[in-house]
């Protein structure tokens, strides 16, 4: 029944030889998981606990109705409750301190919910050699403990059987990483006492619930090839529908299957080892998927059943191993599928690769869950160090199909499917108030449509996804409206430019261009990038100190052609936050390079905008007054980008350093350069063009701090990007923003139906985006009706008379040098014929009568003809002249009725006078 490590060697080779991640297969469902809320759990801390206190969410469970989520908080020594009745607006519902139930040092390790009770697993250990713990049974409705069960050791995870009749607790009795067993090194196994499993029968009332201890015999584990059979250290437990319990022994690199009814061990097997190719195992500021890993043990953490006959493990690794992926086994312990290097490559593709962990366990898959949504089973695998959950269709356990990546906050620990409500929850354990990285519960809804994340990914190059991180600069391509360029900052040691295709969603990094000089790689902290119409790029490179800030010009292949240092009178007053953006304009005086310094120089109270005139190598300076930072928060506000709108108008990013719910200032503002040379630091007059904060919050994730890149594409489309800081004190999520057009033009008419010339139509023209002033044409089809100058974003104009008929009117902003023209949505107006009034006067002159018909209409003098009629006889037809028709007609008898009939025209309706 047992198998040795040697017998698994073939499985290890097979796993490492699986196909690399290329274009992933996507499940046929039209649904996906959409993030709908991210709740910072510190907001639910008890009264009196400061917001800066560490408060985490590790393992979560949910009530039977799916409306109350319960999570552990080991740092806070409590469990928290969230009302998720409205998943888009979760609400803190209080917490329960374990100090009230036991001791101030008690820590919850796991939690589950059965009916009206919360099962809280509590570690009460005095030391590693004296482990202890209990299972508290707490009433969900009011947090009252109704029972406490001694577990006889230090517990880790808990799971419920499918029929909810049995709870299983992994009694880890974890090792002391600073202790060395006889003949071993620090952290080695074995370390007594060994762990075991507790089964708790949940029949009847909690007072009747009884625990059953299941030991894991050393001879059984030894026969299965476990590393230290006398010290099992069970980690994670999971039930299938038949009542079989799967237990991972992480440090022992093994799995044990237990019949929960009898407590009998049915199977024990080693998880085996994996050798990897095409991964990054060096912490060196480079994402190079060319390294290899010799066969190392999987050392699985979380485990879940795929049906009743297969098991999936997240191979986090511990003291000896970790294979950067996950595996599907059958119940005999045979590998039927292994992720190989593909899990790590998902991190790279999505900009989530954590170089700080490259030399250890990479993306470090830790959590794993399996659940059905709309009849399809999905596996969810959480990356502890790269902050994402990968979703796979496991309809065929031997051929999992990648579906999507869900972004999380830092350290996603607990993965909780809630299929009854079409929800999925992720609880994250990393909390650092000083860095603005807080633990959260994230909620995702299973619903139609394509998820918003990712907004940018990379294509493959040379058989592997292009490695990217920390996109702190953005520029338009001079030839293609669907191409942009971006760059990594110093997170990527080798200065690198990236080509971005924005034609579809998500945007795609299609190529990378290394920056070189004299044939060697160059290290730059690229914070600004501009593609020159003349060819090549300008780069703004921020230095660690003032003198390190410089403007760098390259050719189109990224080869450095020129370096421009800032004047010493500036760099001597410049701190660590220097150059942050670059753009350029060209006029009859030559090329002018514009740049921003992020924060004021020492002794100044405005940030600086600089201009470098290439022809004479001179500098000019302008001041920019920054927003006020949030007092008492350690906040500051600075500039992060500059983009030319035209030769005299520029857009800048102005942002604070706050993230999450504290974020306030994420602005794109514009200004026009004041007249003068710029030698006396004239202050520009800024105007808020776009508040980007709503767009960042619309992701329903952790609001990102570093809005750093902005550009105007060739067709006037606006794009922005956030710098993910390479996951250092950040969630690692990159938000690529599509912010509309550089200008927007609106047109509103006083009426959409009018009589000809009765009243002049007025048109209200509005400008938005990056423009509030300029010339706007109002057009009838292709014909220009009038031109109006817009100031302060609005103008009202009286239109020329429109001919009778339907007219499709638009307002077109004529734009500026960078193609920022825009056209309004068409407005259709219908002009109908004007109503006329005809009056008749007659003067008898013997046998003739002089008749005079006068035709009037609002706003114009009617034209056309008048017919004079006696009875049914037409006496005469006369053309109107200046609105009058005069004729002399003969009459018979003393009395005769004469009428004047105006026949109308193309503009005016006819009318009759008696």
UniProtKB/TrEMBL annotation:
InterPro entries reported in the protein's UniProt record: Big_3_5 (IPR032109), Haem_d1_sf (IPR011048), Ig-like_fold (IPR013783), Mesenchyme-surface_protein (IPR052956), Phytase-like_dom (IPR027372), Quino_amine_DH_bsu (IPR011044), WD40/YVTN_repeat-like_dom_sf (IPR015943)
Top-level taxon of origin: Bacteria
Gene Ontology process terms (BP): carbohydrate metabolic process
Signal peptide (UniProt feature, chain positions): 1-27
Pfam families: Big_3_5, Phytase-like
Domain spans labelled Bacterial Ig-like: 758-831, 842-914
Gene3D superfamilies: Immunoglobulins (2.60.40.10), YVTN repeat-like/Quinoprotein amine dehydrogenase (2.130.10.10)
Keywords: Signal
Domain called Phytase-like: residue spans: 467-725
The protein, known as: Bacterial Ig-like domain-containing protein
UniProt source species: Aeromicrobium flavum
